[in-house]
Specification:
This protein is 41% helix and 15% strand. By secondary structure, it is of the alpha/beta class.
């Protein structure tokens, strides 16, 4: 809607915008926080948000392989097959695996996008130098990121620290239990983008990006869509 005239410029599907926005948030985090050279990615969860998460990972870094895991192995295999076709422009091998810890083995990039209420992989098995995007924990009872990983992380960034600490069980639960403190938190990804915060300082740091999504991201995604339409008219 034009905020000056009230004219409706167009309609976009809210679910699709959210998928694009959430994928883009992870892509930005990987581009800003991951090591320069990454080869292996892991995607945990193959639901509605997974496709754009995978595309973001492949866009951010030139990966040789991405391993996909889901509780339902058949669904993981079907998802991997579908993504090999729809993302064929990328040279990355996309394979389904039957175990989450197998997926993260030696992975440089890890994305979790599940509705789990318990850790979806062993945090002690994450390699030094990995960058993780925690996407699925958008309610206080959801907790897909293992506490061990939070403790090992050198830095923890957010799309919005205020929003994450109001919604994400990944951090709310261990904070409430005293397993971590806010001293672990680095700040918002926007502060890094504007050079207010330091990013990755070496290839050994484990860095977590936690996102729950904020309305401003949806707005800018929709704006980008309409800008492209106008440019192509």
């Amino acid at each position: 809607m034009d905020t000056e005239t009230g004219v409706i410029n167009g309609l976009v599907d809210g679910t699709y915008v959210t998928q694009l926005r959430t994928g883009a948030a992870s892509g930005v985090a990987f581009r800003l926080l991951a090591k320069r050279h990454c080869e292996i990615g892991a995607l945990i969860g193959t639901g509605g948000q997974a496709a754009t998460q995978l595309e973001a990972m492949l866009t951010a870094k030139e990966l040789k392989e991405v391993r996909v895991y889901d509780l339902d192995f058949e669904r993981a295999k079907n998802f991997a097959e579908s993504m090999r076709k729809s993302l064929a422009k990328f040279p990355t091998e996309i394979i389904a695996v039957a175990d989450a810890d197998e997926a993260i083995d030696n992975a440089d990039l890890i994305t979790t996008v599940t509705s789990s209420t318990q850790a979806v992989f062993d945090g002690n098995k994450v390699k030094a130098g990995a960058t993780i995007s925690g996407v699925g924990s958008y309610q206080p009872h959801m907790q897909e990121i293992p506490v061990e990983l939070l403790k090992r992380a050198s830095k923890i960034y957010f799309d919005s620290q205020e929003a994450v600490l109001a919604e994400a069980g990944d951090l709310l639960v261990p904070l409430d239990k005293g397993e971590i403190t806010k001293d672990k938190f680095t700040g918002d990804i926007g502060q890094l983008a504007s050079n207010e915060l330091v990013g990755r300082e070496n290839d050994e740091e484990i860095i977590l990006f936690e996102t729950v999504g904020i309305a401003a991201q949806d707005l800018m995604t929709a704006k980008s869509i309409f800008t492209k339409i106008q440019e192509n008219d």
